[in-house]
Prior knowledge:
The chain is mostly helical. 74% of the residues lie in helices and 0% in strands.
Amino acid sequence: MNKEIVPAGQYISLMILFVFGSSLFMGVTGKSGSSSWIALLLAMGLSLPFMLIYARLSVLFPGKDLFDMLIAVFGGIGGKIVCCVYIWYALHLGSLVLRNFGEFCRTVAMTETPMIVPMLFVGLICVSAVKAGLEVLGRSAKLLLLFSFVVIVIVEFLGMPLFHFENLRPILDLGWTPVINDAFGAFSFPFAETVLFLGTFRALPKKGSSYKVLLSGLLISGLIITVISLRNLLVLGPNSLSSLYFPSYVAVSRINVGDFLTRIEGSSAIVFCTSLFIKVSICLYVTSNGMAKVFKLKSYRSVVLQMGLIMVYLAQFIYKDIFEMQHFAFQTYKYYALPFQVIIPLILWIGAELVARKGKQKQVSPQS
């Protein structure tokens, strides 16, 4: 298989849409109320050092992906065991996002349609995109991001007459504890989920461009999510915001321009669909790529369909109902994702630095 090359600009588009994922519609904060925007800014600051660690790993292993790094640092057997851990995480995360979409369809959009139908439809589209390759996915992301940005800007302007700035007060009325808890939650969902991009970085065109991709993607996506969360807060208020399953959809549904321009929440739903398409596709790619590395397959494409169908099947049975989905997303996930996003990457980074130092010493000793 020829090596795929994805320019840094397209990688940034992929990362922004990946971070959007289901966070645009489900929201990323829970109990911080009128101080939710502070929690988002803290989450971005907390994510910054980990973006630098992820980028440093890419520099230490140029042309390698996450699974190559794990095998190089932890050895053949240990590395493949940890590879299986990340295969599960990518598969599970893709299923979680698909289930978010399924619950949205069952609750809001297509209440009479069995939930498996829209999830299977999106899953097969993602299978087709991943089989086409990362290059096709990158070009698609650039176009989809432009469309999403235009829709977001238009909706923000149309929603301004509904803004109630008193919803921003009082700041920190509940203290720092709920803000810090929400910041930790927003760090794990969605910012630190970008650790999966290490599973795709073998397609980066040159050494060091991972810094540009990760830092630019974090800044742009974080600012856009903060702006959208502020809009939801100003339109709905802190009490309503914390009690809704899909606050962005409800906030946009209230826009009414002269009784002429109404019911434009469908445009926001389209942005939701485009971003979750990219996120599920990246998760599916990383899952398939990991399977190919562990079982030494010639191409990841040979298992994309199987992994895609397993992802859809898992999404169908992963939760009992929307209440369990909401509880897992905002209460449990931040602890569940900690090993994948923080602990293992830190160990991998320390081990990679030691491996790189030993490699330099071996190069110097023969010359001396």
